[in-house]
Amino acid sequence: MQRGRLSRAILHRALQSTRKLFPRLEHQGRCGQHARSEARELQVAREKLEIEMKEFFLITMLLAGSAVTYAQDEGGCHAIAPEVVEKLLRPIWKGARIENETLLPTSYDGKPAEANLAFVPSRIADVKSYALDRTYEEGKDYVFDGRTIRLTPNSSIPFFKYEELYHNNPDAKPSVMPTMGGGYLTFSESSMFNDRQLAVTYEHADAWNGPVPQPARKLLPITFKTLKAGRPLKLAVFGDSISVGASASGMVKRAPWMPRWSDLVVDKLRRSYGSEIDNINPSRGGMTSEWGWGNVASLVSCEKPDLVILGFGMNDAGGFSTKQFIENIEAMMKSIRKQNSKAEFILLMSFQPNSKWRPLEPMPEYLEAFQKMEGPGVAVADIWSMHGYLLKHKTYWDMTGNHVNHPNDFMVRVYAQVLLSRLGVE
Q: What is the pLDDT of residues 230-270, one digit of tens each?
């Protein structure tokens, strides 16, 4: 009898945890009309998932006593073990080992395809496909020269010719975008770029001379106090497609099943602080801060979140001045604080768009304006500068999922690393 009661209690906890680990099945803004219209659909999906997950979840999570990070697809769930997540979330600016840094070998003027690492490696642990399902051999498939990996004549590693990336063919497949200098660049939301990217794990002795994010304890005192005490925290993520999860492999149903950056952050906060994190993410692809301002009341404010990560800007740069952009951000903050006067904010400055596709301006001005807004209750997470430093040695297509404005798994991890550092976790 006692064992039966215990099993039911464990099952209840498992189902509660299942809801928290699959944010794509959570209400995406639960207090507005949008939530009511989707509530039944989400509930049916959740119930189906819970039935399928009972046995698996109990065995792998509760009985083993460890947390697991998941990416969800139509066929089920794909788990990333906690020890692997720990390695992947180790800040790239710390330590002497880099896990699964991505690069895309490219041939210029008919020469052997090559690509650069962020650091000069002292030892290569492995070179794998982006999906991590194939390991390549040094000497047979590639050689290293400083930070440069160069493919051998008979290499089995896929690569791009530069003229396949930038060209004058408006009909190139699968799709193209016009470039500022004339001509076109190849664009795709498919696996086209990931299929040619490599994941390299290596050790190095180089110093990191780029930006180093610091904990924002003085800027976010309520959040830090809550987390340190292990108390519940309601976290809202509100932004564009990058906040939705594009192009994290788990979100587009491809190996190696990397969760979106917000899920990585939430999972790590739970494991680091022991706090219960109630996470909502009503972000929507293709949207600007103007859409955010128009929908924040029904999607975010009414939830009365304790901490809000605002992730707009990538789409605003195509038509909004810095003044307009900041006015929209401030209006969203005001709306949220009207419902919860103690709400704190992280203003997320995104990674950079492809500079051959679109001018970087006015996004550097957005960042400068964000930095001026820092103060009690407001911190900045600067992915822009981190990405800019990496671009000193690497190409844009080393770190993107679509070649214009979406991060690949490596940059998704950088997003999470920067945010976690600002929240006191490294």
A: 999 999 999 999 999 999 999 999 999 999 999 999 999 99
Mark whether 269 and 401 lie in a shared domain. Answer: yes
Tokens 């605002």 — which residue?
310
**Which ranges constitute the DSSP H helices of 22-108?**
33-57, 82-88
Residue 292: which residues within 8 A CB-CB, separation 6 or more? 238, 239, 310, 312, 328, 332
In a domain, 78, yes or no: no
354 domain residue, yes or no: yes
> What residue numbers bound the domain in which 336 lies?
221-422
Residue 355 burial (CB count, 10 A): 12
Contacts of 138 (CB under 8 A, 6+ apart): 124, 127, 144
Q: Which residue has the higher pLDDT, 64 or 161?
A: 161
Identity (one letter) of the amino acid at 419? L
**CA–CA separation, 151 vs 156, rounded Å?**
9
Shared domain for 238 and 298, answered yes or no, is yes
pLDDT for 80 equals 84
pTM for the full predicted model: 0.87
The residue with tokens 């679509």 is 402
Of the pLDDT bands very low, low, confident and very high (cuts 50, 70, 90), residue 68 is low
Q: Which CATH number does the domain housing residue 247 bear?
A: 3.40.50.1110
Position 215 in a domain:
no
pLDDT at 115 over 80: yes
DSSP letter at 61 equals I
Q: Which run of H or E residues covers position 102?
A: strand 97-103
Do 188 and 305 lie in a common domain?
A: no
> How many domains are there within the chain?
3
Q: Is the dihedral of CA 10, 11, 16, 21 positive or negative?
A: positive
Examine residue 311 and state whether it is found in any structural domain, yes or no: yes
Name residues whose C-beta falls within 8 Å of residue 198's C-beta, 6 or more positions apart in sequence. Answer: 102, 103, 104, 105, 115, 127, 128, 129, 130, 136, 149, 157
